[in-house]
Amino acid sequence: MPEDTRESNGVIDDLQESVKKIKLPYADGLYDHQMSLTIQKNKDRETIGSRSQKGISLRGFASEGWVYSNSTNIETTSVRKMVNRLSKRKAGAAHDQLSMPRPVKVDKKVPVKKHPIDIPMEEKLQRIRDLFSLAMKMDSRIVDVRVSYYETVMERALVSSVGTQARQLVPRTRISLTVIAKEAGVTDYDLALFGGTTGYEVVDELTEQVVKDTAQGAIEQLKAISPPPGPHRVILDPGVVGTVCHESFGHGLEADQALRGRSYLKDMLGKRVASELVTMYEDPTVEGAHGSYFFDDDGAEARKNTIVENGILVSFIHDMETAASMGSPLTGNSRTQNASRRRFIRMSNTYAKSGDWKLEDMIKDMKNGILMRRWLSGMEDPLGGGMQIVSKKGYLIENGKKTKTLKSVTLTGRVLEVLGNVDAVSKEGFLIDSGNCGKGAEDYVPVGSGGTWWRTKGVIG
Amino acid sequence: MNLASVLDKATKPQWEIYIQRSRRTDLQLRHSAMEATIHHENTGFGVRVIIPRSDGAGVGFASCTSDKELEETAKRAHDLAKMNRSPYFELPEKTRLPPTQTVDQRIWKDENAAARDYAETAQALISEEKEVSLTFGKVRTYAVETQILNSRGVSRNSKGTYVYLEMTFRIGRSSPTEFWPNRYARRISDVAPTTIIPEWLDIARSCLKRCPPKTKETTVIFAPTIVCDTFVPTVGYHAGAEAVKQNLSQFQRGSKVGSELLTIIDDGLYDYGLETNSFDDEGYPQRRTRIVEKGVFQNHLYDQMYAQTMGSKPTGNGIRTKSMAADVDERYQMQPSTSPTNLSVKPGTESVESLIRDVKEGILIHHAAWIDPDPITTRFGSEIRNAQEIMNGELGQGIVGGTLGGSALELLHKITGISNQAEIVSGSSFGCVSPYVRFDDVQISGPT
Question: Exposure winner among A109, A238, B227, B362, fewest CB in 10 A?
Answer without folding.
Answer: A109
